[in-house]
Design goal:
Elements (H helix, E strand, L loop, with lengths): L12 E3 L5 E3 L2 E2 H8 L3 E5 H20 L5 E6 L6 H9 L3 E4 L2 H9 L7 E3 L6 H10 L3 E4 L2 H14 L3 E8 L21 E2 L4 H10 L4 E7 L9 H22 L5 E3 L17 H19 L5 E4 L3 H4 L3 E15 L4 E9 L8 H5 L6 E2 L8 E7 L8 E9 L7 E5 L20 E5 L2 E6 L4 H6 L4
């Protein structure tokens, strides 16, 4: 077997001496022949192992300081009924942020107390549904939501457990679109301007609400534990201020998610065990300095569980060398695949970087500068802007792009009325469809003429 970068590829991905990629014992050509391309191929054992890794690391680290930790899988990264069940089976809880995600959780048979509901603009129907399901927490994102959720709880005759999402001023996660705790953005309530404290007091004034704690989410694809440590300190300070002002000691802090993964060999994903221990140390130290009991902690990994577990398998179509200028200087070779921005919008949306490799064979040919592009009517429909691929790539070859489990399928669209790909779960030599490929009938089903 030829070695694959274990930080980038799923744990059960292998490469034969002839260059054939296999995942969980099933080769890429076999998968393509049975299920077609493009397709998301999800290594179930890898997904489950990553979920357990977060659970074990955080439970252990916080038990050592006399506290506890809960891990919520962030369903926005990728959610279907099978994945929802895996998450619960591995001892995690599930974070949702829409009525649709709640519907998937309900179909999967997940008990309400193991669910949370996020969202900066929840509808009345979503709030009512969450209360009816008995979710374990609703994360309030504005002062106006205090009254709306309290009134909905009163109408249902239930006391609603809530957290308040705050912005800590910690800017992390690279691109502006995935940094979510600085002041000038749509999420949460600012600690700096006092709106967080105002909202916490408003919650305490409504007996229909049970205030569990405060929540923050500082960004995505974060590869430096220091940002989480700074954020934890700010939440602990806010907790102490509320206690001094009201006598209420919040039992829980939610530190959010955003833990980075490796998309390419240049990325350095966070060590989960080290992160858990570092955060436990900070929580213990700062709580001691403030003279307060250590709170429970919750976190919300999504990308770091789903992302590395999945590979997108494409078929190569048109291969087009491009030359410009005097003397016909070759610029690069465009390698078109049968998907693109409809199944992976992240490169077009905020310049996300990926790698790829031939999945059906090896090649002794020299590698040449290439650009992997999709089939959509946009010049920005680029999967990988610059990558060295063998010079003999031809139509019909299979190309595999790793680390696409987070946000590939969940952000997929029907642009150009292209049907969305299936998700194929593979485990110990067995493949099964957990999300089927869309058909043209699916596309036409909502077109009422």
């Amino acid at each position: 077997m030829i070695a694959l970068d274990r930080a980038v590829w799923p744990a059960n991905a292998t490469l034969s001496e002839t260059g054939t990629l296999s995942i969980a014992g099933i080769s890429a050509p076999e998968l393509a022949a049975e299920f077609g391309t493009p397709a998301f191929v999800l290594d179930e054992d890898d997904f489950r192992a990553r979920a357990r890794m977060f659970r074990d690391a955080f439970e252990s680290a916080f038990a050592e300081i006399g506290s506890a930790a809960e891990v919520y899988y962030a369903g926005k990264s990728f959610l279907c009924t099978a994945v929802a069940r895996w998450v619960i089976e591995e001892g995690l809880r599930l974070d949702t942020c829409s009525g649709g995600e709640l519907a998937v959780a309900a179909r999967a048979g997940i008990d309400g107390p193991r669910l949370g509901l996020h969202g900066n603009n929840k509808s009345d129907a979503e709030i009512a549904r969450a209360i009816e399901m008995g979710v374990g927490r609703i994360v309030l994102d504005s002062l106006a939501e205090v009254e709306r959720v309290a009134d909905a709880g009163a109408a249902a005759g239930r006391r609603v457990p809530v957290m308040v999402r705050v912005t800590t001023g910690v800017h992390a996660g690279g691109h502006e679109y995935i940094s979510t705790a600085h002041e000038d953005q749509k999420f949460g309530l600012s600690i700096a301007d006092g709106s967080a404290m105002t909202t916490l007091r408003a919650v305490l004034a409504r007996p229909e609400l049970e205030l569990l704690g405060v929540h923050t989410h500082i960004g995505s694809q974060i590869q430096d534990a220091a940002a989480f440590e700074v954020s934890a300190r700010k939440l602990l300070a806010l907790r102490a201020q509320l206690y001094a002002a009201t006598g209420t000691l919040l039992p829980e802090l939610d530190l959010g998610g955003g833990f980075g993964i490796a998309y390419t060999a240049q990325d350095s994903p966070l060590d989960v065990g080290a992160l858990a221990r570092a955060l436990a140390d900070v929580v213990e130290q700062v709580s001691g300095e403030l003279g307060l009991a250590v709170p429970r902690i919750s976190i919300e990994p999504g990308r770091s569980i789903a992302g590395p577990s999945t590979v997108t398998l494409y078929s190569v179509g048109v291969v087009k060398p491009v030359t410009v200028g005097e003397g016909d200087v070759k610029v690069r070779t465009y390698v078109s695949v049968d998907g693109g921005m409809s199944d992976n919008i992240r490169p077009a949306l905020y310049g996300a970087e990926y790698t790829a490799r031939l999945a059906n064979r090896s090649s002794a040919k020299v590698k040449i500068r290439s650009r992997v592009v999709g089939k959509h009517c946009e010049s920005g429909d680029i999967v990988i802007p610059d990558i060295d691929l063998p010079a003999d790539v031809v139509p019909g070859d299979l190309l595999a792009v790793p680390a696409t489990g987070a946000y590939g399928r969940s952000m997929a669209s029907n642009y150009n009325l292209v049907a969305r790909p299936p998700v194929i779960a593979v485990k110990k030599g067995v493949a099964r469809v957990i999300v089927r490929r869309e058909t043209e009938d699916d596309l036409l089903s909502t077109d009422v003429g």
